[in-house]
Amino acid sequence: MRRMVPATFAVICFLLLVVPGFFAPEHLSEPDLSMGFAGPGAMPPFGADGRGRPLLEYALQGSRVVAMPSIIGGAVVALFGVVGGLLACTDSNRAAALVQAFGEVVGALPRMVVVLVVALLLPADVRGLLPIALTWAVLAAPGAMDEAASVAGRLGGARFVEALRAHGFSRVRIYLYHIVGLNLRPVVVRQGVEVMMQVVFLEIALSYLAIAESQPSFTHSDSTHSWAEILDLGYKVALDLPTWHALGLGLGLMAMVAAISVSVSLAVRAR
Length: 271
Known about the structure:
Blueprint: H1 4-18, H2 55-88, H3 93-107, H4 111-121, H5 129-155, H6 158-166, H7 171-212, H8 227-235, H9 244-267
Helix pairs in contact: 1-9, 2-5, 2-7, 2-8, 3-5, 4-5, 5-7, 7-8, 7-9, 8-9
């Protein structure tokens, strides 16, 4: 029962992240200057920007930008974690050396610098968040593999596998059910969801950087808009503009993504 509450909350937030992207318009509505900075009461449900365009459309397009790339990035990290945990159960010195070398090389790279280089090198016709998400996932992989290997090591590694083999279990059941399903699952799922959250926040940061420098976005086409634009509009409340509704929406979207990470971690924690 204690797991059901965070699991249900995580599913609701996850659906709120993913599903709206399928209803995102290709382009924003035509400006209506008479509705500039309209609040949620005048233009439900989230109000309007300075040109009278609904913030709902910004939120829908932003969801489409981040949803699938962040999920794919999280899945890649989870897969790396599973591989790291399973290799730790093989008692292979060669595999351990390869994992250690991969971790030392990739772990030594400055993540943000590498991501910025990848973003700058992407041709304009393939501009998108997915390559950046995959890059971030690979850079985060050593940590996931190390943590999963530590869990496998506490189980006993190869000795654990041989003990279960002696009881007549097949290797498929041992590796997929006893090791991954019962023991590695909390670790790899948490790592995957954390990276998913990081990819979303990374997209917001990169888009905000592009807005501040008046440059084309690194993560989406010029006709698509990011959640960063909602936050940028909201921050203008410091200039005495009536944009509290945009600030609340932007912070609420970020809180929703963080809630997914926290709720999933609670729902899948080890028994």
